[in-house]
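User: Please predict the structure of the protein below. I'd like the answer in structure-token form so I can feed it into my own downstream comparison script.

Assistant: Understood. Taking the following sequence of 68 residues as input:
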Amino acid sequence: MAKISIRDEKCKGCSMCINVCPKACIELSKTHRNRKGYMTAQFVKPESCIGCAMCATMCPDCCITVEK
């Protein structure tokens, strides 16, 4: 099973990682904001993650790390 780490403080909530995830493992938080005021991406379905790393590839701010 793969593990995704998202650096909240760098995330701008652009949703690019959410749109590209084939298993819908990432969602935009409805409650958590980082220090800059952005709603951040959250890894919500670790059991579904296939470790494709499309989310990390698409992130314009390099906020996501995928570990297998």
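That's the full token string. The longest helix spans residues 16-20.
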